[in-house]
Amino acid sequence: MNRYQQLILLLIGCFLAFSVWATWQASTKGSRVTDADYYSKGLRYNQTRLEKNAARTLGWQVTSTLTGRQLTIALDSGRKPVSAADGVLLIFPNDGSAVQQYRLAEERSGRYILQLPATLHGECRVLIEFEHQGARLERQLLLNLPEA
Which domains, and CATH codes, for the chain? Predict the structure, then answer.
């Protein structure tokens, strides 16, 4: 047998070995990317997209100000405050501790205030969610909090 015939036989052997291995993997282990609740999550994904599109259509704007440990968030729609929205703030601490969830209290029309806990310091990623009349808006912030 010459060199090319040996190379072709080697390639065929490698292909057959890989095919057997792939068949064994697929038949014994199954997919590792499955989610038992995939259908509900898919339905929720579509609902979330509709809510975000509604907020964009309404022209919602979010402005945030951090004064000391007081976070003030203004929610408006074309210079008109959006009042009575349900506001939630999620804080992802930089030390790897559990996510903290807070409800935003409406101080006056379209202005929401939260006094941040003294235990938080350094850079913290924050997610702000507002929902009002079927529209939803999400914004992410990065806060740099001094030590108390």
Answer: 41-145 (2.60.40.10)
Q: Are 96 and 109 in contact (CB under 8 A)?
A: no
**Model pTM greater than 0.85?**
no
Q: What are phi and psi of 138, to 5 degrees?
A: -125, 140
CA angle 125/128/129 to nearest 5° reads 145
| 8-63 residue pLDDT tens | 999 999 999 999 999 888 888 766 666 666 666 666 666 667 666 766 777 888 88
- What is each CA distance from 117 to 68, 100, 147, 148, in whole angstroms? 11, 10, 11, 9
In 1-148, which ranges are E strands? Answer: 60-67, 70-77, 80-81, 86-92, 100-108, 111-115, 122-132, 135-145
Distances (CA, A) of 4 to 1, 9, 126, 135: 8, 9, 62, 67
